[in-house]
Here is the input.
Amino acid sequence: MRSWRTWLSSFLPVLGLMGVTACGGVSDAAPKARVEGLDYEISGPYSHENLEVYLVHGNDRITSDRKLMPLSEALEKKLAIVHETGNVNQLAIENTSDDVDVFVQSGDIVQGGKQDRTLATDLVVLPKSGKVPIASFCVEQGRWQARGGALALRFASSSNSVASADLKRAINVSNQQTAVWRNVDIMQKKLAASLGRDVRAAESASSLELTLDTEAVRASRKGYTDALAKLAEQADAIGFATVINGKINGADVYASHRLFARMWTKLLQAAAVEAVADKQDTPSNDAVTIADVRKFLAESDKGKSTERKPVEGINCVSFDNATNHYFETQIAGEAGKSVWLHRSYLSK
Here is the structure.
């Protein structure tokens, strides 16, 4: 097994911010505004119906994430295993690869096992890791056996993530299973009302994962994903903020463009589903500006802070203030300095 010191040596901060270069794609001419106090610039909005996306631009802060792979890809390529433990609120992840580091993001949904779960924390799982415990929450009720021909002791895929700010708060702030179940039910009811049809799957009516995979929900998000899919092609894009119905919803920022680009499909799908669920008959007259997004990002790391270490070498810092929740996943860099890998922002 590789040591943390060896692995972390490939994650060195890039010195300085040398400016950003306009790239090909949908927004060559989009103006960018710097975020005071942060190495970010913002462009946008890029809009479809009631969803607006603001891109976060910046230089890579890690020298190479060539072998840093999101969980969804690792499961698809059979380089990782998510094990059922029989404990509702804890699973185990195993990285079976020789040289790929697996990135898990809080809110990733894993399908299968005895109940579908969402993972409760960011994590980087090293090659040949053995079983690494990770906190989880059920996003399904009632079932406690294999579904169909699936294996009861493993999870087959992770193609979706939780699709509402309320669910993210239930996972990251409340840390309560009942709050997760309640918000899964709310999301299903909102989608049913918006689409005018039941979105609960016959195989398991309570499963958020199966709801997200219904034909009705897939079709409803397609316009959004088709319109906005190419945003992540910009070579300096490292994250995004979302605005739904004229209100800032949240943001995710990564330490490299490549990691962001590999996460983008899953992130955009979740944002699109939330926009569908919250669609209003009358469009909002509220207008969000780049300045508003700048302020949201710049002021999120104010207020009371807490820290926790899900595994050795990973530090999760959170801030709670009057308007926002902010979560930062850090790795220990050279000379004892921390380097952030993922920043997540949630409005209240």
User: Anything to note?
Assistant: DSSP finds eight helices and 18 strands in the chain. The first strand starts at residue 33 and ends at 34. The mean pLDDT is 88.
